[in-house]
């Protein structure tokens, strides 16, 4: 039997209750990794602040939990460990990294995916910046960009000491084109990309890589619910033809984590579609989904 490519990998995936984080964690598990699955939603206590988005999606209960994802990681072949963490709270983040150091003795991969931008989404994505509520700024920056920075600050000393590691941030990027209609979103994603770049410059001499990964339009639980369908029937909705599963992003992260030459990619933003062609992986339906580009 072939040795799983990430059998010895210790990873943290933040914001992994659902969506892209869940897809990443499960694919890391399929590659053999031990994954600390973090987020605020547990089976017993779903995260708060998603009321508007749930109402628009027609959901009575918030989908997903860190417990569910951790179980999927283990079922896929890895080891999933659920840890409830509010990534806006620095003390909780510090406790997470101290636990990983205590239990595993190292950290090979941090995936920064925790994102608060959906917590204030009012159903309007495209509007002049003066019409978007400032609450969206707080959600995207204070509970989005800052989450990535705080986690990276705790990961960096561990990785510098061992002189290896990868910090991967999920983002959105379309070749530096303006994300028309949402200045706050454009600024937040640009900040994440620059954050990954800046971290890469400071960690390069220590043998630690930092990069950003941009998926296309993912069929998350909220997207499927908003279109009144599920993963088994999404093809019946023509509007979803350009979508990809969250596992596609997960396969991109797993390929990067297994790449011994990943330092060559440090400091840049990489689209999942481009990585699929380079590494030869497909989405769960066997397609290599083209990059999502702004019309």
TrEMBL record:
Pfam families: adh_short_C2 (PF13561). This is SDR family NAD(P)-dependent oxidoreductase.
């Amino acid at each position: 039997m072939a040795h799983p490519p990430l059998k010895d990998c210790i990873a943290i995936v933040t914001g992994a209750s659902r969506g892209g984080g869940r897809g990443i964690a499960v694919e890391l598990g399929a590659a053999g990794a031990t994954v600390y699955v973090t987020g605020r939603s547990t089976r017993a206590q779903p995260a708060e602040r998603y009321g508007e988005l749930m109402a628009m999606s027609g959901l009575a209960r918030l989908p997903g939990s860190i417990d569910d994802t951790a179980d999927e990681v283990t079922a896929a072949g890895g080891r999933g460990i659920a840890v409830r963490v509010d990534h806006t709270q620095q003390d909780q983040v510090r406790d997470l990294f101290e636990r990983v150091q205590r239990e595993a003795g190292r950290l090979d991969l941090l995936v920064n995916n925790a994102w608060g931008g959906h917590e204030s989404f009012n159903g309007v994505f495209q509007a002049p910046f003066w019409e978007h509520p400032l609450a969206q700024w707080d959600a995207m920056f204070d509970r989005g960009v800052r989450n990535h920075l705080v986690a990276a600050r705790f990961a960096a000393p561990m990785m510098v000491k061992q002189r290896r590691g990868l910090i991967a941030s999920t983002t959105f990027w379309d070749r530096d084109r303006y994300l028309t209609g949402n200045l706050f979103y454009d600024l937040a994603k640009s900040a994440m990309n620059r954050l990954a770049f800046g971290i890469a410059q400071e960690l390069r001499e220590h043998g630690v890589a930092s990069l950003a990964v941009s998926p296309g339009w993912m069929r998350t639980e909220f997207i499927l619910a908003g279109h009144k369908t599920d993963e088994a029937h999404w093809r019946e909705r023509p509007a979803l033809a350009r979508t990809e599963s969250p596992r596609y992003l997960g396969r991109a992260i797993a390929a990067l984590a297994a790449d011994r030459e990943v330092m060559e990619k440090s400091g840049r933003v990489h689209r999942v579609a481009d990585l699929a062609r380079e590494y030869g992986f497909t989405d769960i339906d066997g397609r290599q989904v083209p990059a999502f580009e702004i019309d």
